[in-house]
Design goal:
- This protein is an alpha/beta fold and 715 residues long.
- It contains 25 helices and 21 strands.
- Strands 13-14-16-17-18-19-20-21 form an eight-stranded mixed β-barrel, surrounded by five helices. The protein has a five-stranded antiparallel beta sheet with strand order 2-1-5-4-3, sandwiched between helices.
Length: 715
């Protein structure tokens, strides 16, 4: 079956066609261009599979590069054209359905591996050719006189026809003869190179052992050596080569000549430098990227004693607004301008600036005393951001938050330093932004602990690390136990018992509050059933109602009503045994959609309590539209009643709230009762029920049973 032109096979065929047209003019193959395209098609398919694989198979990409050499693509220009073709068309024709940015990054790494495979195969082929040439040269010297002419003819054929440069010099270094390939490499026409001597070809980048090896060879102490060496061409440009120099001896074994074999690696070296630059620098801003920065940071942190470092972690404030309002192109131009300004701030020795990604930048300074240098660098960065940036005719004010970490080398790992800087930067952002903050180990520890608790929450629920304590609700009229509020706790393996203030906000942030709240509701309702079965359901024999807190996230969850109904039905508990507490702040400005599930629960017979009443800014007239039956006054109203006499203003406020609540058929519960005087005052003011340490602290269900027994006995 023939693939559709636009199908995967058709696109692969199109890529192979483009590739063959680009490379065929610089190949040494005897095939026609269509035949050469058929040779490239399997290689194109292998590249496509590597690009779309789950993880990059660098070995397969190197094998494709090596296969080019086997297809007679030995000219460095063939590699350059191949990489240009892969860079421009591989993702376009073979990356359908993938993440474009991820595929582009993988394509760059794939090109690097292809170049390495090509270089390795070409090197192996060249070395084999060099060995053949050397053997031919040695054999030419050792043949008998009657075969000398034939041997010289064979040597001349190899000498003149070789693709690599060959030169012969005497032991004093005088160049006797070079082949055409070497003259082309140097861009010259004189086979004797103007009488130059080998020792004159020095270069500043010569490895230290280069001339030591040369001296050993001409003295007859070694037979050959191999180095990477640079040469100056007559026009001043630099030629990089893989140089192999061998010693030629006469029939008696006396050193006579030196034979130099040169492979031009200039294009390959430039390509590797380009690939290295692209792999270590940000494509948009030209700054060092995350990978390069971590290399420098590791080096700075592994420096010797007495060395210090300073790190500034910058995140732009409100950058998302620029992208959303002006577009990503404008955001990119803004990042380029910011990068230029940051680069101008870090010009001293030991300083560098890098872009980690998005709108996050880092500046690093190193030395023997960076305590003040890091602060000064952060100050320079803040000053550099003061001037507005003009984008598409708009003057944009740039703000940034910076976290500064400074310390002794060798004390922390790069990941720990960057984490501390990140935490500190967010602390600066939380403080209003447009500022820099210094790292605080205690603040870091709190954030790390908070993060650890967040990640441990899901497993903690599965392992059953949560438990519930109950605080009684007492009727102020006769002192009977009227019910109990369920308060969840976390028995953490390392931190011990944690109160809800430590983990409920984390659960709300992660969304785990919904399954956790469902678990608390079911456990509490089951406990209410156990109490009713134990005490017969009569007053004041035991707690008849259980109060369970609902978070704002639970209020908006579509399964709230059905979950509640299912739990009540499974446990066989009537709705009047349940009271759901909702904070006043969660219902401020609530619309009908938010109130609808509460109204449905209230219609079923579930009580709804407005918790922490008096701490928000709700209109008292709003109480008429809320489906609540209980007001829970915040403990702030009872604090002044601990003094004698009580604050008359607070007394009037409480008295007014109680009167308003009773006029709306609402009962009033007061939190935070700690003394008998408070309880008596609240009873006089008309409050219905209360809870607090005066009656009992939160505890296990059995302790509530003991209170109920004392109450039933009239003690």
């Amino acid at each position: 079956m023939i693939a559709e032109p636009d199908g995967p096979e058709g696109r692969l065929r199109r890529f192979a066609t483009i590739w063959s047209r680009a490379v065929f003019p610089v190949t040494s193959t005897s095939s026609t261009r269509p035949e050469f395209e058929e040779e490239l098609l399997p290689l194109a398919r292998r590249l496509s599979e590597v690009l779309r694989a789950r993880s990059l198979d660098a070995e397969e990409a190197r094998a494709v590069g090596a296969a080019l050499v086997d297809s007679h693509c030995t000219d460095p220009e063939a590699l350059a054209r191949t990489l240009d073709c892969v860079d421009a068309y591989l993702v376009l024709y073979c990356g359908e359905g993938g993440d474009p940015e991820g595929l582009r990054a993988r394509s760059a790494r794939l090109q690097h591996a292809m170049a390495a495979g090509f270089a390795g195969a070409l090197r192996a082929r060249t070395l084999a050719e060099q060995e053949a040439i050397a053997q031919a040269a040695l054999k030419a010297q050792g043949v008998v006189a009657e075969a000398l002419h034939a041997s010289e003819a064979r040597f001349r054929a190899v000498f003149e026809g070789a693709a690599i440069g060959i030169g012969i010099a005497d032991l004093e270094g005088n160049i006797l003869q070079v082949n055409d390939a070497l003259m082309r490499m140097f861009g010259i026409a004189d086979p004797t190179l103007g009488g130059r001597r080998a020792v004159e070809w020095t270069h500043p980048d010569d490895a230290p052992q280069t001339w030591r090896l040369y001296d050993e060879l001409v003295r007859g102490e070694r037979e050959h050596y191999h180095v990477e060496k640079a040469f100056y061409r007559p026009d001043g440009t630099v030629l990089w080569t893989n140089l192999t120099v061998s010693l030629l001896r006469d029939a008696d074994g006396t050193p006579q000549y030196q034979l130099a074999l040169m492979e031009d690696t200039t294009e390959r070296r430039l390509l590797n430098l380009r690939l290295r630059y692209e792999a270590t620098h940000d494509a948009l801003t030209g700054l060092p990227n995350r990978s390069f920065f971590f290399e420098r940071l590791e080096k700075a942190l592994s420096a010797g004693p007495g060395r210090r470092f300073g790190l500034c972690y910058l995140d732009l404030d409100g950058f998302k607004t620029v992208n959303d309002s002006l577009g990503h192109a404008a955001g990119d131009r803004l990042l380029v301008e910011v990068a230029d300004r940051l680069q101008a701030c870090a010009t001293a020795p030991g300083e560098m600036v890098a872009r980690l990604g998005g709108d996050e930048f880092v500046a690093l300074t190193t030395g023997t005393d960076t305590r003040h240098e890091a602060d000064e660098l952060a100050g320079r960065i803040m000053n550099a951001l003061l001037a507005p940036i003009s984008i598409d005719g708009r003057e944009l004010t740039v703000r940034g938050s910076i976290g500064v970490v400074e310390g002794q080398a060798g004390e922390r790992s790069p990941a720990e330093v960057l984490r501390s800087a990140d935490i500190t930067m967010y602390r600066a952002k939380s403080a209003g932004g447009n500022r820099f903050e210094l790292a605080d180990p205690e603040a870091d520890a709190r954030v790390i602990t908070r993060h650890g608790l967040t990640t441990a929450l899901p497993a903690a629920l599965e392992r059953g690390e949560f438990f519930i304590e109950y605080q009684p609700l007492v009727h102020l009229g006769d002192g009977s136990v009227h019910g109990a509020e369920a308060l969840v706790r976390w028995l953490h393996p390392q931190h011990g018992v944690l109160g809800p203030d430590r983990f409920i906000p984390l659960a709300e942030h992660t969304g785990l509050i919904v399954p956790l709240g469902r678990w608390v509701l079911e456990q509490s309702v089951r406990q209410a059933r156990a109490w009713r079965e134990r005490y017969g359901g009569t007053t004041p024999a035991g707690p008849l109602r259980i109060n369970v807190n609902l978070s704002p996230c639970q209020l908006t969850h579509p399964g709230l009503v059905q979950d509640t109904v299912d739990i009540l039905e499974r446990t066989g508990v009537t709705p009047d045994a349940l009271c759901l507490e909702v904070t006043e702040s969660a219902l401020i400005g609530a619309d009908d959609d938010l109130l609808k599930p509460l109204r449905r629960l209230a219609e079923m017979g579930v009580d709804i309590a407005l918790d922490d009443f008096g701490t928000g800014y709700s209109n008292l007239a709003n109480l008429r539209r809320l489906p609540v039956s209980v007001l829970k006054l915040d403990r702030s109203f009872t604090q002044s009643m601990q003094r004698f006499p009580a604050d008359p203003v607070d007394l009037k406020i409480v008295e007014g709230i109680v009167a308003l609540a009773h006029s709306l058929d609402l009962t009033v519960t007061v939190e935070g009762v700690e003394t008998g005087a408070q309880a008596e005052q609240l009873r006089i003011l008309g409050c219905d029920t209360a809870q607090g340490w005066y009656y009992a602290r939160p505890g296990p269900p059995d302790r509530l049973h003991e209170l109920a027994l004392v109450d039933a006995a009239g003690l």
